[in-house]
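Appendix B. One record, verbatim.
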Amino acid sequence: MSTRFNNKVALVTGAGSGIGRSTVLLLAEQGAKVVVSDINFDAAEKVAAETMAAGGHAVANKTDTSHPKEMK
């Protein structure tokens, strides 16, 4: 396991599948604590659980970034 991102926190949006999921897993593998953010909370939870099962640190978060004015 690389330590490139030790003591860093990363926020990945659209992380419930595809490129976002791969990014979460790579960042966690390199030592980052990752916020797995997606509009689909169930998908975000699955990726966070997968990350934790692989020895990483992750937390799921539901976020819709398509409407920035509504984000609070």
